[in-house]
Amino acid sequence: MIYQGKNVTINEPSCIGKNVILEDDVYIDAGVIIRDNVHIKQGSYIGSQSILGEYTADLLKNRKADNPILVIGEEAVIRSQCIIYGGTEIGEACQTGHGAVIREHNKLGHHVRIGTHCEIQHNCRIGNYVCLHSKVFLGEETELEDFVWLFPGVTVTNDPTPPSNTIDKVRICKFASVGARAVLMPGITVGNGSLIGAGSVVTKDVSEGMVVLGNPARVTGQTVDIKNKKTGEKAYPWPCYFNRNMPWEGQNYDEWIKCNNR
Amino acid sequence: MIYQGKNVTINEPSCIGKNVILEDDVYIDAGVIIRDNVHIKQGSYIGSQSILGEYTADLLKNRKADNPILVIGEEAVIRSQCIIYGGTEIGEACQTGHGAVIREHNKLGHHVRIGTHCEIQHNCRIGNYVCLHSKVFLGEETELEDFVWLFPGVTVTNDPTPPSNTIDKVRICKFASVGARAVLMPGITVGNGSLIGAGSVVTKDVSEGMVVLGNPARVTGQTVDIKNKKTGEKAYPWPCYFNRNMPWEGQNYDEWIKCNNR
Amino acid sequence: MIYQGKNVTINEPSCIGKNVILEDDVYIDAGVIIRDNVHIKQGSYIGSQSILGEYTADLLKNRKADNPILVIGEEAVIRSQCIIYGGTEIGEACQTGHGAVIREHNKLGHHVRIGTHCEIQHNCRIGNYVCLHSKVFLGEETELEDFVWLFPGVTVTNDPTPPSNTIDKVRICKFASVGARAVLMPGITVGNGSLIGAGSVVTKDVSEGMVVLGNPARVTGQTVDIKNKKTGEKAYPWPCYFNRNMPWEGQNYDEWIKCNNR
């Protein structure tokens, strides 16, 4: 450890490496392993049996090499049994479920949520307020813009002719929502605010605001036409009807847009 | 710990919280973490690196709050690396695989099996002799009646317009069997003794005793017409042909029904 | 422990059982649990919080019985949080991701890769240079020949009339490649060098070199006609275009074939 702030708690047993920075009010629960070169910012909670700064393949080949730095932002909640590699940077207020694996050289924005048993391969770019529900898999180089939601078991691929050396990355634009167990094929772009039905296999680009469904997925309509069956009210664009854990929580989305001049 | 029965084994290292009851013949393997307010009944085995009484989100916000009570019934086998939250109640003779996550305020009957890497979200109701094979995901409020079988990777959803605040729960009736990787859409009811084919996406209610298949799933027949290809004998209703780990093990189902006056 | 070779490292805390053989240059990272009767060959790395020689159901019933022997070959990299049962035999240079579970009585060849959150049930036979990407599930008795690739979330089933006592095993032949989230139905054989599209549900045998797609999967062409969209070159048979981690790495496949007289 090189720096430990005020009011830091470290429960035993735990293993803390070299060059570790634990800022004020960090809480490390029992059984955590922190490798070298990990920086945990103020107020973060690290759940039991998590491993932070996990070794990349390069480090396993050369154990004397320097572990790339892992940075975990302020007020994070990393739940138990997660593994996060060195070389990754996670913004403020990240929350994870259990057993999630986040590989090296990923960059996650602030207020990102990563569900139980998710895996994020290396070199992904993930925006702010993105929500990955449980068991999501993101292939390397995936790009998720702000406010994207992926529901349980979504799989984002990247190899058009497996196995190959080609990476054809998927990009999902703002406010898009991808239903449970959907598979996104390599190279596709999912447009702003679109909705992909559960269990779909998406083989082509999806245009802004469209609904696609099936295997292979076909356009079945537009999100603006979807209504909540119980209330009869519109359900999309979802930010107008849903605000839990969103920056417009407690006010409506339109007001928030105005206040933020967007 | 407040109570430890006879012949209790606790392997080191392990962390045992306050107000923990370990009844007679409980065996705690190495590396287990038990939070406060956990009650483990007679003869149960808790595998290495499991976490019992895991903190709910409320507890993480207010670490001085009381952990809701976790009760694990008699003769349970909780295999290594499982996480079970406080506020859940599990009946007698439960068996789990590895790395399963069971959230808070779930109620599981007796003789339930939960496979490796399963996740049960909060507020589910699970009957007796239910079997979840590996990698099953149950969204919150799911209801599974007695003798339901879900095969590997089945995903049970609950949000009809994701993301939203609406929960439209799935209910699966007695003796229904759901094939590997099937996805059940929000709000559907799967009838008694029906069979859902592997890889199906079920978008509508399934009637009693029917077979459904495909994406979207369509009725293809009735379970009573399905035969075992090798023997030529009928395969359903499955309780008449299968009894391993069932209460009629060692006798046939008809006899058991008679003995139980059902 | 009964034998410890030269230059063995064991990080604390860790639990090492009886009759454990650690050959030269073995490295055991912090938090590992090794049960009785485990043999780890030269130069292998065992990642933190892994459990080796995990108890079979028989052992849990009779804790005085002898754990069947687990053998891990030379130069293995078992990453953190994996669980490998007793009674399994793993060849040289195996690599795993995190949280993989490998049950009892499996036989894995050399240079096998097992991704994060995979599960291999018991009595499987896995050839050399097989690659299972993340979250793959193999039902018991599955047979994978040399150089088979299964991509993220592939599910291999085995019960034709679930639940039943019948096992109808899947067999995947050399060089076949199975796309993400595909489901293979019980009893099918996937032919040499064939390609199964992501998200497919394969209900019939697949002939050598064919491409199949969809739910249910249908033949859409032959692998030899698939081209890399960027380069315009052929992409299959993949060994001619891809050599990373393969025995022909650094030379081309044809040369390797000649050198090996195959």
Question: What structural class do the secondary elements of chain A suggest?
Answer: mainly beta
Total number of beta strands of chain A: 32
Q: What's the assembly state of these chains?
A: homotrimer
Count of runs of 4 or more consecutive helical residues of chain A: 2
Q: What fraction of the residues of chain A are assigned to beta strands by DSSP?
A: 25-35%
The chain pair with the largest interface is:
A-B, 42 and 36 residues
> Quick one: biggest sheet of chain A?
10 strands, parallel
User: End-to-end distance of chain A, in Å?
Assistant: 43 Å
Major sheet strand order of chain A: 1-4-7-10-13-16-19-22-25-28
Q: Unreliable stretches of chain A, pLDDT < 50, 5 or more residues?
A: none
The 3D shape of chain A can be described as globular
> Helix proportion of residues of chain A, in percent?
under 10%
Average pLDDT score of chain A? 96
In short:
The structure is a homotrimer of 262-residue chains. With 262 residues, chain A is mainly beta.
Describe the structure.
- Three copies of one chain form a homotrimer.
- Chain A has 262 residues and is mainly beta.
- Helices cover 5% and strands 28% of the residues of chain A.
- Chain A contains two helices and 32 strands.
- The first copy, chain A, has helices at 57-61, 253-259, and strands at 3-4, 9-10, 15-16, 21-22, 27-28, 33-34, 38-40, 45-46, 51-54, 70-72, 77-78, 83-85, 89-90, 95-96, 101-102, 107-108, 113-114, 119-120, 125-126, 131-132, 137-138, 143-144, 149-150, 155-156, 171-172, 177-178, 183-184, 189-190, 195-196, 201-202, 210-213, 218-222.
- In chain A, the strands form four sheets. The first copy, chain A, has a ten-stranded parallel β-sheet with strand order 1-4-7-10-13-16-19-22-25-28, with no helix packed on it.
- The longest helix of chain A has 7 residues, at 253-259.
- The first copy, chain A, is globular and about 55 Å long.
- The interface between A and C is large, with 36 and 42 residues.
